[in-house]
# Entry
Amino acid sequence: MNCPRCKSTLSAGANFCDRCGQRITATRSRLRPAQMLFWIVASFVGFVLTIFLIATLAAPPSRSGIAQPSKTTRSSAPSAAPDLELVKSGWKRQGYIIYITGAVRNNSQRTFHYAQINFNLYDKSGAQVGIALANVNNLEPRGLWKFKAAVLEDEASTYEMKDLTGF
# Structure
């Protein structure tokens, strides 16, 4: 270590410089409590997220061979088609994630600036275990929207469309 004033080499543990008499204070390289807390919390959060991602990606999918769902909703409008119409839907697996995919048609002459489709998810006993949804902006008149709604519930085996809205 060197003297901050005259830059001469100091002996170990010296309180004063032998050459110029400058008082030597111990330099603190420790973090302040707030900095230490920040790094402890950041490290913990990073650790938890890493474990979660490893567990999620390493786990084998719990569903295999999912068939076409038994609960679906079809439009039962009289003769006129609704402005927004579900024209098809089904399950699709991409890697470890399962989606409800399909198409919605805008049967109107106006643009829907926002449209959303909602599905209830059910387990094998028929109990609701969650929801899935998808949305789109600026669905043009007579346009077809190909949607993909992620199914995040491992227990889900069937679905039912609950809502199709737009404005």
Summary: Confidence is low (pLDDT under 50) at residues 61-75. Residues 93 and 99 are 6 Å apart (CA to CA). The first strand starts at residue 84 and ends at 94.
